[in-house]
Design a protein that fits this description.
This protein has 417 residues and is α/β, with parallel strands linked by helices. The chain has 14 helices and 14 strands. The protein has helices at 51-55, 58-65, 77-83, 97-106, 121-124, 161-170, 225-233, 254-273, 287-290, 303-311, 326-332, 350-359, 364-375, 382-411, and strands at 4-6, 40-44, 70-74, 90-93, 111-114, 131-134, 155-158, 179-181, 201-206, 238-242, 280-281, 296-299, 317-320, 340-342. Helix 10 (303-311) links the parallel strand 12 (296-299) and strand 13. Helix 7 (225-233) packs parallel to helix 8 (254-273).
Length: 417
């Protein structure tokens, strides 16, 4: 059938078994042509460049697996190879569309989860006996957060009130009953901090990438990035940390690559001149593990800013506006009203602004209000509980709907009861 899989590890120290090539034997625990046990499918069709979208969900999906058995269905062998060492969750490779159809027809999955809007998701959406749920890979005000593609899913899990309003404002003829606010389960996780303790205040510059197209380009790297970092380094008694989006260093745009490399040189040169300052670049690692050691963030319109808002609402935030359209920014990104804006008109004063915000935080109450707008009043652990409960309810709904369809077919004219 062309399907290849890896079984769930027998324990945390069990060796991962991976199919190295389609010509090799199927790994133990999976036989092509037979069903795969599992209740929840996590469908991910993309190559490893987009694995960051799935990686942030893995700890949550591993918790979900304790209630509802989870299988990750992949379409790319390189993605399977990389993912297999990151999680004990079972992975199955269905490279061709007929492979995927056979897998779904032979198995009895109840819920399929999607962390992006890949065009290949529509291959999976052809399966009619599954409840299809879009969970996305972040909460932000980017235009890509609301795609007309969400109409194809049975349910759309979102973070909170602002996300509901975002869909209402952007989509025509959309059934808003599909929206299920669940918070942001990833923010209940507490990864080990990446930054060592320091007596200095830490300024984090965490920009996004340039997006797939011009309308989804919110990055400050190529327009303000080096100037932002230079301004932060000019503030006395600070540690500067540069944590770009994973796709910034891989950008095909020369302007992005040049600016990123200029930022890296600035930070590394500052670290060489003052080894005790702790200035550093974190190209890898979990951004949530960087937050605990930070006193102020400079970021773009992205999920990073909102994650920081949720986890560190007491710390100042600055948002860069590459479009230099203050009215548009405030209309499209409500969090901007609770932050200082970085653009060409404020860049010269940025060292003073950072200094002032570290000394006297004037926008704390604004940020708390913004946090409620994006995430409601959810406390620690409540997003995870709500997410797990919503999956259970969706699985139960699937069973009821499937039974109803069966009853309808049986009682249809021309069929025996």
């Amino acid at each position: 059938m062309g399907l290849f899989g890896r079984r769930r590890s027998a324990g945390p120290d069990a060796a991962h078994r991976l199919l190295d090539s389609p010509e090799g034997p199927a790994p133990e625990g999976y036989t092509p042509g037979e069903p795969v046990d599992g209740e929840v499918v996590v469908y991910f069709a993309d190559d490893p460049r987009k694995l960051y979208q799935l990686k942030q969900w893995l700890p949550v999906f591993e918790l979900l697996d304790e209630r509802h058995s989870v299988v990750i269905v992949l379409r790319n062998l390189a993605t399977l190879a990389e993912l297999s060492v990151l999680t004990p969750l079972r992975c199955v490779l269905a490279p061709a569309f007929p492979d995927l159809v056979d897998l779904y027809e032979l198995s009895d999955f109840k819920v399929a989860l999607y962390v992006n809007n890949s065009v290949h998701n529509f291959h999976s959406l052809t399966q009619r006996r599954i409840q299809h749920v879009h969970v996305n890979h972040g909460e932000s005000d980017k235009v890509c957060m609301v795609s007309n593609q969400v109409k194809a899913y049975d349910r759309v899990f979102v973070a909170g009130p602002n996300a509901v309003a975002r869909h209402r404002a952007a989509l025509m003829s959309f059934d808003q009953d599909k929206l299920v606010p669940v918070g942001r389960p990833q923010l209940d996780l507490r990864p080990a901090p990446l930054l060592a303790p320091t007596d200095r205040r830490t300024v984090l510059y965490a920009p996004t990438w340039e997006g797939e197209n011009a309308s989804n380009n919110y990055t400050s790297v190529d327009v303000f990035g080096p100037a932002i970092v230079a301004a932060a380094l000019a503030v006395p008694d600070v540690r500067v940390v540069y944590k770009p989006h994973p796709r910034v260093p891989l950008s095909p745009l020369p302007s992005m690559v040049d600016s990123h490399e200029a930022i890296v040189r600035l930070v590394e040169d500052a670290a060489w001149r003052d080894p005790g300052a702790g200035h550093q670049v974190h190209a890898d690692g979990d951004i949530l593990a960087v937050f605990p050691g930070c006193d102020l963030i400079v970021t773009d319109v992205s999920s990073v800013g909102l994650d920081f808002l949720y986890l560190r609402p007491e710390q100042p935030m600055l948002i860069a506006d590459r479009h230099e359209d203050r009215a548009r920014l405030l209309a499209e990104a409500p969090v901007a009203a609770a932050a200082d804006i970085v653009d060409s008109t404020t860049l010269a004063a940025l060292p003073a602004t950072i200094t002032d915000r570290l000394a006297a935080d004037a926008r704390r109450e604004d940020r708390r209000a913004a946090r409620r707008g994006y995430f409601g009043d959810l406390g620690p652990g409540e997003s995870t509980a709500r997410f797990l409960g919503a999956i259970t309810e969706t699985a139960e709904l699937r069973d009821r709907e499937l039974a109803l369809l069966a009853a309808t077919r049986t009682s249809a004219p021309g069929r025996s009861a």
